[in-house]
Amino acid sequence: xxxxxxxxxxGAGGLELATRLGRSxxxxxxxxxxxxxxxxxxxWKPLLHEVAAGSLNATENELNYVAQAKWNHFEFQLGRMSxxxxxxxxxQLAATLDEDGRELVPARExxxxxxxxxxxxxxxxxxxxxxxxxxxxxxxxxxxxxxxxQMLSHYLRAHANRLDxxxxxxxxxxxxxxxxxxxxxxxxxxxxxxxxGLDRIQPENMRITxxxxxxxxxxxxxxxxxxxxxxTLEKLxxxxxxxxxVSEVTAEGLKTRDxxxxxxxxxxxxxxxxxxxxxxxxxxxxxxxxGQLVVRPTLQTTRDDAIFALGDxxxxxxxxxxxxNVPPRAQAAHQQASLLVRSLKARLEGRPLETYVYRxxxxxxxxxxxxxxxxxxxxxxxxxxxxxxLARMFYISLYRMHQVALYGPFRTLLLMLSDRIGRxxxxxxxxx
Length: 432
Known about the structure:
This protein has helices at 12-26, 48-53, 58-61, 65-72, 131-134, 141-160, 177-195, 223-235, 330-348, 388-407, 409-422, and strands spanning 3-8, 31-37, 41-42, 63-64, 75-78, 81-85, 90-93, 96-97, 103-105, 108-111, 114-117, 122-123, 136-137, 168-173, 206-211, 239-241, 246-249, 253-256, 261-263, 266-269, 273-274, 293-294, 300-301, 304-309, 314-315, 362-367, 371-378, 382-387. It is an alpha/beta fold. Helix 1 (12-26) packs parallel to helix 9 and helix 10 (388-407) crosses helix 11. It is globular, with a radius of gyration of 22 Å.
C-alpha cells in the first residue's frame, strides 16, 4: 500500500510542505500526500494586518487549496481536525457546514502512516476580562475583514450624516510585529480614506493607541530596532504606552492595571500566542503550558514517532544548548517545512532523520508606506541593520519568496506583473 502522509493545516509551513512533497513524492507515486484544512483558501498570515486596514484585497491574494492540490499532485480534504486515534493511525475531521447551517461535507476519518500537524497558533488573551467579547483578534482572514468592515462603517456613517470633525479611536493591545504594523497601516489608511472623499474623519482624528505590557515595543527583537520603530510611530501620531497591562476590556474601551481608562471604539488584541485548544491532551501527546506539542529536534512528537509537528503549534528546542524553544516566526515554519521534505523522504527509505537547528536570518518590520526597519543576519555579514526603502524592499521580498515556494518562479513573476498593472486601475484602499 502507498505510504499516506497527512498534513493538517494549510498555513505557510503546511502548504509549502504539501506542495513540495506532492511535486516529488506524489507525482512519482511514492507516497499519497493529503492536506487537510478547515478553509478552502490560503492567505499568508503576515498580510492580515494589511487586510484589516484595507491596504490589501484578500480575494486577489488568496490561494485555492483545491487548485493547488491539482497542480502539485497532492489531495485536499476540507474539514477541521477534531480528534486523533493513534492506535488506529487515523484523524477525525468535523463536519463542514454551509452558511445556512446545512451539512456541506460530512464528518469522517482520514487514515495516515505519517502525520504532520501544522495548525499554527491563536492569539492568547490570557483570560483578560472582556477581551474575547469586545476585542477583534487577527488570526484569520475573516477576523481581519471584520475589523475592516467595522472601521469602514465608522467612516461611511460620518460621511452620510455629514458629521464634521468626527473622531475614531482604535486601541491595539500588544506591540509585537502585528500590533506595530497594524498601527502604521491604519495611519496610512486614514490618509487614503480622506483622499477618496471620506474626510469627515480627518487623519489626525483617527486616534490610535498601542499598548504593551512590557518595557518596550517589539520585545522579542533587539532594542536597536524597537527604538526607531517607536520613534516613527510617535511621529505618525500613534500614542505608544509601554509598561501598561490591560486588566479589562469593555464596550467603551480599556481599563489598565494602574487604573487608567482608555476610550476606544475598536479594540484589537495582538498580544501573545497559544496553540489551538484541540491539541491539548490530543490522544496522549505531550503539551507545554501554551498547548503546543512538544517535539524532539527531528520534529517528531515525544510520544509518537509517526507524528510530526512544525511551526507555531510545535514546542521545538532551539538547538543552541539553551532551554529556549524556537520562536513562533514565519521563517521557522519555512525552515522546518524544508527539513521535513528531506526527512519524510528519508523516513520512507528507512534512513536516519535530520535534526532541526533554528537559523535566525533577521527580522523586518513594515511601517506601511512610511518606512520599514529590521536587521539581516548571515554568516558572512553578521548582523546588518536596514531602514527605509531598502528594508521595505526586503520585507516585500519575503512574501515573494513564499509565492515562489508555492507557485514556482515563472508564475510568481506573472503575479508580480499582474499586481503592478492592478495598481493603475484599482483603488489604493479597499473601500467595501
